[in-house]
Design brief:
By secondary structure, the chain is α+β, with helices and mostly antiparallel strands. It is about 45% helix and about 10% strand. A hairpin with a 5-residue loop joins strand 1 and strand 2. The radius of gyration is 22 Å and the shape is elongated. The protein starts with a helix and ends with a helix. It holds the Pfam family HTH_3. InterPro entries: Cro/C1-type_HTH, Lambda_DNA-bd_dom_sf, MLTR_LBD. This is Transcriptional regulator with XRE-family HTH domain.
């Protein structure tokens, strides 16, 4: 328990005094818990973790370190008991017809995608179906040298916000933090973009035929999830932002084998 709670508090940049004031746990008792001189009760530990905004994975780690059973399951998405989750994701992917949509996990790995995304990739001159049939990490696909960022008209705006969003999430996700560290040396710095942390992002892409395709994306996540896998998932829809983009997607869907 000792390092886990202290490390979590420091990662959140919260002082012992501030955490004490948030929870009603005395600073002296908190210090004893962090140094191992005292053991936090389960309810006290939950209160401390709530105040720190701990992720479900961090909660499990803290509970195990303190000698308690983990509180949250981590089921594989293809597990039989996750069938209702898969059905919900399928419904979300197809809720807007063939509007491009994808599901990513907390490390930005592509989990699911619809036919609309394959059509969009084809419009960009890429082998859409082949790409989506292979394991793909969205951050690698965008930020690696020669990646998808080169097809973006407003590259600085899109990449700056996408990187900033991933960086905020990586504060609590070690694997994501490691991925960003791996990609960072190949990147140019982008100026921060003020979006108010809204889950909507506008961007423009260069199609293979020279047209500019305009989109805005919207993210959906599961509210109050109790499973670690479920908590990490996000559904992203890429909505056409103008008539030309809508026509291009419709034409791609009308083509044979499109």
């Amino acid at each position: 328990m000792t390092a886990t709670l202290a490390a979590l508090r420091k990662r959140r940049r919260v002082s012992q005094l501030e955490l004490s004031l948030r929870t009603g746990v005395s600073q002296r008792h908190l210090s004893c818990i962090e140094t191992g001189r005292s053991r936090a009760g389960r309810e006290t530990l939950f209160a401390l973790l709530d105040a720190l905004g701990a992720t479900l994975e961090e909660r499990n780690q803290a509970l195990l370190a303190a000698g308690y059973a983990p509180a949250h399951a981590e089921r594989a998405l293809d597990a039989p008991e996750m069938a209702p989750v898969r059905a919900a994701l399928e419904q979300l992917l197809h809720a807007h017809g063939a509007t491009p949509a994808l599901v990513i996990d907390g490390d930005y790995n592509l989990v699911m995608a619809n036919v609309g995304l394959a059509r969009l990739l084809t419009l960009l001159g890429l082998p859409g179906e082949a790409m989506l049939s292979q394991p793909m990490n969205l951050l690698r696909a965008v930020f690696s040298p020669g990646g998808l960022r080169g097809l973006c008209v407003n590259e600085a705006e899109l990449c700056g916000e996408m990187w900033a969003r991933a960086s905020r999430e990586a504060e609590h996700l070690p694997r994501l933090r490691a991925l960003l560290d791996e990609l960072r040396p190949t990147l140019q710095p982008w100026a921060p973009v003020e979006t108010g942390n809204l889950p909507v992002l506008s961007f423009r892409l260069r199609a293979a035929d020279g047209r500019t395709l305009s989109f805005f994306s919207a993210l959906t996540s599961f509210g109050t999830p109790l499973d670690i896998t479920l908590a990490s998932l996000k559904v992203e829809h890429l909505f056409p932002a103008d008539d030309e983009t809508r026509r291009a997607l419709a034409e791609a869907g009308a083509e044979p084998n499109g």
